User: What shape does this take?
Amino acid sequence: MSELLTIDSIHVSYGNIKALKDVSMHVDQGDIVCLIGANGAGKSTLLKAIVGLEPLVEGNISLDGEVIATTQMSGSSRHIKLFRRSGAAGTSSLRTDQIAGLGVALVPEGRRVFADMSVEENLDMGAFLVRDEQLIAKKKEEMYDFFPILGSRRKQKTRSLSGGEQQMMAIARALMSSPRLLLLDEPGLGLAPLIVADIFDKIRIINQEENVTVFLVEQNARMALKASNHGYVMENGRIVLSDKSEKLLADEKVRAAYLGE
Ligand SMILES: Nc1ncnc2c1ncn2[C@@H]1O[C@H](COP(=O)(O)OP(=O)(O)O)[C@@H](O)[C@H]1O
Ligand SMILES: [Mg+2]
Assistant: This one.
């Protein structure tokens, strides 16, 4: 399998706080990969770095083997002429909208839906890079078929939806741009176990039937490891374990620290 996302020895800081320390990992094309870790481990920071929302202090991030963020301007990336410089360390990276244009969609932590907009308007926001109106209409119908609850509520204000329904809508919004890589930041956060199971089922179907590569970040280690093929464990900004998800589910240290056993 070829690597779709490659994280190569990245460091990210918030002032004096070193949030990510020498993080390396990858996501193969077509795979579902999860990253588990406690609150504050650095999971969201990694996703923000991938979509260009946090500058790197060191390291490289590549998509399909092409650098999209780096601190070393070697001149090897196809995207280099598009890079903007940011951060004290002089990171060069694509802008968030350019990364979205390469097929990367993030469902942020806490969903970040537009509560006063209707379901349909939220989905329209997800298609901001799509110019073809017919394609937008077709994608919306696909989303209403895939998430029937959204179809029956399309004109309703998003704030009237339950937490689980809002999470479904946030995922549908991300899918409106037909991404190759879907990044999910704690899709199960604050939701009842049955709803979480439902959401993870949908994620598996999106991966298998729509051929979308998935990188999933979760505190809910059991659900994330069951849903994924490969897993990484993050502690205090470092990757401390990486293995097939089924191996991690059976690992004694993982069971004690993350599965409450
Ligand atoms: N905007 C920020 N400013 C300062 N510190 C931050 C900011 N965002 C996150 N942090 C800190 O960085 C560390 C990693 O946070 P985060 O990536 O949100 O972890 P996780 O998503 O695993 O809970 C934590 O110590 C957190 O307090
Ligand atoms: Mg987080």
Notes: The longest helix spans residues 193-210. The mean pLDDT is 92.
